[in-house]
Amino acid sequence: MKNIVILISGRGSNMEALIAARDAGTLPVNIAAVISNRPAAQGLETAARAGIATHYIDHKAFAGREAFDAALAECIDTFAPDLLILAGFMRILTPDFVRHYEGRLLNIHPSLLPSFPGLHTHQRALDEGVRIHGCTVHFVTAELDHGPVVIQAAVPVLDGDDESSLSARVLRQEHQIYPQAVRWFAEDKLTLVDGKVRLAAELRDDSLLRSPELR
Ligand code: GAR
């Protein structure tokens, strides 16, 4: 069974979706640890309650990104992860860190990348007037919120939506596609080859989800 480590910065609802899938028997992984860069991250308590080893490494205690990322990698590597999962981990990672985990580093982002990298994705989608929005699981490269796409979910932007209603609609889909992507990795159906996603042929059609609201 593959070993995974999850990095969070806050609420940890994507992490919870992964724990729930593991508990339901639909995600065959060992969640070795949950690590946060914020000591007060709510998700750390949730993980500890689920009996998972938790750590925090406060980025504010380090002089720069390189030193923080080196300490983070040292902690992560004590768990020998097959896969490292960014689940609302709100730190820009150094190229050395990303290279170290190449092909085994996934992120979830609340937009249909390459649209809306960065922050405030839902408000920006509303401001632009797009009709379709969503979320993306991708392998991480050194470029922020960029990298080979594994799976996306599309949701409609409805008349009367505000940031809160739109983010809730997207989050429901995040909780579907992240466990799905990790399951594919755990079952050796998802790999990164020469910088490109290789997904078992029978799964290609499952790599785009449509929310029930999307007609
Ligand atoms: C999620 O919406 C995730 O997609 C986003 O942060 C939120 C974390 O929520 N991540 C990013 O914006 C990364 N660029 P959670 O802590 O409840 O999973």
Provide a compact summary of the structure.
With 215 residues, this protein is α/β, with parallel strands linked by helices. The chain has helices at 13-23, 42-49, 65-77, 95-100, 121-128, 163-186, and strands at residues 2-8, 29-36, 53-56, 83-86, 105-109, 132-139, 149-156, 190-193, 196-199, 208-210.
Please give a structural write-up.
The protein has 215 residues and is an alpha/beta fold. The protein has 2 domains: 1-101, Rossmann fold (3-Layer(aba) Sandwich); 109-137 and 144-215, Formyl transferase, N-terminal domain (Rossmann fold), CATH 3.40.50. The chain contains 6 helices and 10 strands; from the N terminus they run βαβαβαβαβαββαβββ. The protein has helices spanning 13-23, 42-49, 65-77, 95-100, 121-128, 163-186, and strands at 2-8, 29-36, 53-56, 83-86, 105-109, 132-139, 149-156, 190-193, 196-199, 208-210. Strands 3-2-1-4-5-6-7-10 form an 8-stranded mixed beta sheet, covered by helices on one side. Strands 8-9 form a two-stranded antiparallel ribbon. A hairpin with a 2-residue loop joins strand 8 (190-193) and strand 9 (196-199). Helix 1 (13-23) packs across helix 6 (163-186). The longest helix has 24 residues, at 163-186. The model has no long low-confidence stretch (mean pLDDT 97). Bound molecules: glycinamide ribonucleotide. Glycinamide ribonucleotide binds next to helix 1, strand 5 and helix 6.
